[in-house]
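Researcher: Next entry: Squamous cell carcinoma antigen recognized by T-cells 3, partial (Paramuricea clavata).
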Amino acid sequence: IFERGLSAVLSNPNDSVSLWCCFLEYLRRRVEDWKQESKEREDLMKAFGDATEYLDTNYGKNADTQALIIRYKAYIEATKLDNVTGAKKIWDSVMSSHTREAQFWLEYIRLLRQVNDSNGCRKVFTRAIQTSNDNPELLCESYLKFEKEEGSLSDLDTAVTKCSARLKRAWEQKTREYEKAESARLAEEEANAKKEQHKAQKRAQKKAEIKSKMEKTKRKHEKDDERDKESGEPEPKRPFVSKEELSTKSKEEDVKETSTEKIHDRSKDPQTVFVSNLLFTVDEEQLKSTFSPLGEIEEIRLVKNLQGASRGYAYVQFKNESSVSAALAIDRQELRGRPMYVSRCVDKTRNPTTFKFPTTLDKCTVFVTNLPFEIKSVDIEDVFKVHGKVKEVRLVTNRSGKSKGYAYIEYEDEVG
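Model: Predicted structure:
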């Protein structure tokens, strides 16, 4: 079974080492008398050489990283064959690769104590506390305990002196390592604090910029409103504008240009309509193409701010007053996908705004709600015209022209 396992050449060298250790333990149990030469003892000692050769051939020189096989051989040499010198040579070769590891030194010392080699233990302890650095406290504790149990007072004093010096060096080394780690930690904390301070400064700067921009915009709007108030122009609600529309506006907010708008002549109000809820990108030419079929136009004045951008409303002045009625008829007609609000041009300071629809009971009008948002006026008219002649369908929309889900249907007479 062992030969079949070795013929597989396991991919992990540790598995092969474990397999060889099991085989060596099996061969050790076959030896009955260690004092006499026998085939079983010869097979065991030969197997140690075969194991080393097999591992070196298939995995390289350092396949047995923990030296399990040769440490086992040293144990056999010292305890079974009384060859302490041979065992020491084996352990010296092991310690050449594990000189800084306390556990290897302690195992070496336990083997020497097992064969009653006290002088050998002292020599190994001296080497161990000088070279091992992973656990000098454990080595010193074991050394002092050994001298208390095995040595004389002189030996104990010597051990105390050696251990004190070694522990002092260990403490100094740990202190240096701690100071180095603490210095690195403080440097990292200082760097993080600087980063946080820099971020806080950037946030404060950004906040100040936003506040300054808001105050600047507020002052600009106040100036625009004051100017409109002085000119007597009606103040419309600011129209909704999408991000795409805003992108077409000028970003140079700091430009201070003098407005070239004309002062509105109130004597022309009867032949003028006020148009609002316009896209900021609508210009005079588009307004002219919309209103010119309704009558001859004398002037179109698109109200702009100090930067020359449209404010979303305009005045259309016709030559004849009769054209105003035709213009009012296209109230809420879409211009470039957005309903425009058309109303008479009146002086709000002298003529308060009145609601354009009747506020008393209207027996010719029905109110319909819970409508689909995508429905059109023509669709509503098709449904309700079977009950009578429909005079007008008023589908209520928001400023962007989207239906609010309800409408008014006005019939020619009360019968409908």
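Model: Note for the record: The longest helix spans residues 153-231.
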